[in-house]
Amino acid sequence: MENKTSESLLGFTSSENEDTNGGIYVRQDVPSWRLGFTSLENEVIDNQLSVIGVIAPWLTGTLIRNGPAKFEVGNQGYRHWFEGLAMLHKFSFKNGQVLY
Known about the structure:
By secondary structure, the protein is mainly beta. It has one helix at 32-35; strands at residues 2-7, 13-19, 24-26, 61-70, 72-73, 76-77, 85-94, 97-99. The two termini are 20 Å apart.
């Protein structure tokens, strides 16, 4: 991993660690629970994820999850996951690999 300053997938700008395999940035100085209440501004399209362990070779398909993404619209801020705008998350499984 290399240290870099840039905008993360979670909308932060700070000194972050870059996962050179997936280009995903994670802030190290923010409590993990706060990330669930931070607006997402960027999207990721079909990045191959690193797998720890083994995914069954017969597992093929797509899992789609819905979750919170945007907690501000214009000047209006939202304080609950159900009030903001949503984002879909897609995990595709094929040949022992996972794409997000």
